[in-house]
Amino acid sequence: MTLKEQQDEIIEEFSVFDDWMDKYNYLIELSKDLSVIDSKYKTQEYLIEGCQSKVWLFAEMEGDVVKYSADSDAIITKGIAALLVRVLSGQKPADILNNELYFIDKIGLQQNLSPTRSNGLLAMLKQMKLYAMAYNASR
Amino acid sequence: MISLDIQKIRNDFPILNQQVYNKPLIYFDNGATTQKPQVVIDEELKIYSHENSNIHRGVHYLSEQLTQRYEDARKTVRKFINAKHDHEVIFTSGTTESINTIAFSFGEKYISEGDEIIISTVEHHANIVPWQMLCERKKAILKVIPINDKGELLLDEYQKLISPKTKIVAVNQVSNALGTVNNVKKLIDIAHQQNIPVLIDGAQSIQHGNIDMQELDCDFFVFSGHKIYGPNGIGVLYGKEKLLNEMPPFMTGGEMIKKVTFEKTTFNELPFKFEAGTPNYVGAIGLVAAINYIQNIGLGNIATYEKELLDYATKKLESIDGLKIIGTSQKKVSVISFVLDNIHHYDAGMVIDKMGIAVRTGHHCAEPLMNRFSIEGTIRASFSFYNTKEEIDKLHEALLTVKQMFS
Questions:
Q1: pLDDT value for B23
Q2: What is the ipTM score, two decimals?
Q3: What is the DSSP string of B93-153?
Q4: In angstroms, rounded to a whole number, what is the distance separating the alpha carbons of residues B316 and B390?
Q5: Count of the separate structural domains present in chain A
Q6: Given Cys at both, which of A54, B21, B286, B343 links B406, Cβ 3.0 to 4.6 Å?
Q7: Mean pLDDT by 10 residues, chain A (139 residues)
Q8: Last residue of a domain, one of B295, B310, B341
Q9: Which DSSP helix (H) or strand (E) runs through B379?
């Protein structure tokens, strides 16, 4: 699936919810599916510290695509991290860098990626792109 | 005691009458900032619409009028906290600026290498970091009063910390994160036996009851206008005349200066010495409106009603299985800080928010205190006299939903 198709699929999934609680319940479900970071990487080195919640992020190249895994101490943060991983993991570094991420806005979770909401997610997204940039440059 | 007409009071606060996420707003984040009654909003609007002019400078009509109002504001604050002299009341931008001013200025004058400064475990970062930086500059030593599991300061330990090297004690009267009330009178008396001055951070106490400088006898007292139903960006630094006179200015420029040549500047007297730049006269006059407003309701009445809310909420929240209140001292203001099972405070806060309830989550700018309890953060509900028991019931319901969602 392309990055765009991944995003459109998520938008479709979220379109059925008109209540915040349903949305959050779905994020809680998604948090359980997250390809959780190997415990050996759940260390200070891979920690992205937000003021409200913590996120751990690990990335590696597998063939010509980047594989991300993540975890968070807060479940809603973890659910949103799962969405970011779902969209960006398995994509080529150039695609990660060149595609716009619009699904967060569309599903109404942009608050969670605002610089003022210090939950680690915005920093996680930046870090994901930094990994992609590094892999792209080293190719 | 008269009973308060809460509905009438609520009508004085336009912000409370709104919906968020299609639910009636329940504002339980009063520890972070309080809402403003219409009289405060009107006062600021009136100044900008009809009275604005820079103070202490112009000889013209508007300037003279507003200068008078600003100095009257100082008198009102002086009376409100029962300080001895008007010029012991310095207007600042808030508690943080007040503490930074004292830490810098007092530090310049009185702190040298090896001296000791005492704070406590329950301090807000604003009453930790300025002292830490002072200690770094002067190679002084920061000592911390420990607490028990209820969040109460250990007075015996405090007494042991005091030494001939102790130069100042700086503690809050009420913990922002826990709502526990510290026995500052006792702390002050103990310090004064050794002639050690004491700063009281009143940011979380001033809005909950009558506070009297001459009775407390603290050497410095600081608070913010916005936490006492007043405007943002105005705060107070009370200091005893003798100390303030001896201390050098912190910031310079403007009215605080008497005479400047390129060789030497002489500084103005109190209180102007500590009010560099154009003062926030709109804020100061707005603060008067807020003080008048709460005095009209009566701080005693406020304290009584808020205690009723606290007791009700404590009972109600404690009935939730897995909910643990952090800060269980018998002496508390209307603040409840708690953790719920192993549910992350951020998750809980996100869900509670969507039910229209504003609470604070996280470490409340008191990380060392969170470390003391081995937690990352709490959920904090802080109540004001415009809150109701029905609203607390809604919080109770919301927490049950949170529990259900995350377990």
A1: 96
A2: 0.87
A3: SSHHHHHHHHHHHHHHHH--TT-EEEEETT--GGGTHHHHHHHHHHT-EEEEE-B-TTS-B
A4: 11
A5: 1
A6: B343
A7: 95 93 94 84 85 89 95 92 94 95 90 74 90 90
A8: B295
A9: strand B378-382
Beta bridge partners of B382: B29, B335
Do B114 and B224 lie in one domain? The reply is: yes
The 8-class DSSP code of residue A101 comes to -
- Rounded CA-CA distance B208/B214 in Å is 18
Range of the domain at B221: 41-295
Q: Which of B344, B354, B355, B363 to mutate to test the interface with A (most CBs of A within 10 A)?
A: B344
Q: In the listed set B295, B329, B355, which residue is the last one of a domain according to the structure?
A: B295
Long-range contacts of B54-58 (CB under 8 A, 24+ apart): B54/B278, B55/B278, B55/B279, B55/B281, B56/B255, B56/B272, B56/B279, B57/B255
Residue B35 counted as domain residue: no
Tokens matching residue B191: 């310090």
Contact (Cβ atoms closer than 8 angstroms) between residue B152 and residue B326 = no
Q: Is there a contact between B346 and A52 if contact means CB atoms under 8 Å apart?
A: yes
Number of H helices, E strands in chain A: 6, 3
Residues of A in contact with B406 (CB under 8 A): 28, 75
Residues in chain B: 407
Tell me, what CATH number does A81's domain have? Answer: 3.90.1010.10
Task: Give the CATH number for residue B311.
Answer: 3.90.1150.10
Q: How many CB atoms lie within 10 A of CB B340?
A: 23
Degrees to nearest 5, angle at CA B224 with B65 and B135: 120
Helix (H) or strand (E) holding B169: strand B166-172
- Residue B344 has what pLDDT? 95
**pLDDT for B270 beyond 60:** yes
CATH code of residue B153: 3.40.640.10
- B371: nearest Cα among B140, B179, B123: B123
Is B365 an annotated catalytic residue?
A: yes
Residue B96 shares a structural domain with residue B115: yes
Q: Any idea what the Cα angle at residue A108 is, between residues A102 and A110, rounded to 5°?
A: 65
Whether this prediction's pTM lies above 0.90 is answered by yes
The answer to whether B316 faces chain A, any CB pair under 8 Å, is: no
User: Cα separation of B263 and B260, whole Å?
Assistant: 8
Average pLDDT over residues B168-178: 97
Distance CA B94, CA A35 (A): 46
Considering the domain architecture, whether residues B55 and B14 belong to the same structural domain is answered as: no
Q: Which residues contact B246 (CB under 8 A, 6 or more apart)?
A: B109
Domain total of chain B? 2
Predicted pLDDT at B2: 58
In a domain, B16, yes or no: yes
> Does some domain include residue B313?
yes
- Chain B residues with CB under 8 Å of A52 CB are 345-346, 349, 361-362, 377
Return the pLDDT at A117. Answer: 67
Specify whether B154 is located in the same domain as B167: yes
